[in-house]
Specification:
There is one protein chain. Helix 1 runs antiparallel to helix 2 (17-36). Helices cover 49% and strands 4% of the residues. By secondary structure, the chain is mainly alpha-helical. The protein has helices spanning 2-9, 17-36, 56-74, 80-83; strands spanning 92-93, 96-97. It starts with a helix and ends in a 7-residue tail after the last strand. It has one domain. It has 4 helices and 2 strands; from the N terminus they run ααααββ.
Length: 104
């Protein structure tokens, strides 16, 4: 359902399964109330596809945050690498710098 998809996508990536279930139930109840004026009893069971991969988003987020903080402490963080560009306008290719061979 579109209402459930919208409600769940508004949650943060670190939302617990209980929060996902509550958001889905609330969205279905609101849509039913608007559609036919009734409040149905809704049961929702949210589960993780592979419990071994459940923590990967949190790990990636923590690593990125630590890298940004380390670069900021070193005074080198510009944010340009995320866009695939360096300050001098030369591009990046697969994480390898592509340019005219200048030394910095």
């Amino acid at each position: 359902m579109q209402a459930v998809d919208e409600a769940v996508t508004r949650l943060s990536g670190r939302a617990s399964l209980v929060e996902v279930e509550r958001a889905a139930i609330d969205a279905v109840k609101r849509r039913a109330l608007a559609f036919n004026g009734k409040r149905p009893e809704v049961i929702c069971i949210a589960y993780e596809h592979d419990p071994r991969d459940a923590h990967m988003a949190g790990v990636a987020e923590a690593r990125a945050r630590e890298a940004r903080e380390a670069d900021a402490r070193a005074g080198e963080w510009t944010g340009d690498v995320l866009l695939g560009q360096r300050r001098d306008g030369e591009g990046l290719c697969g994480g390898v710098e592509v340019g005219a061979g200048r030394q910095r």
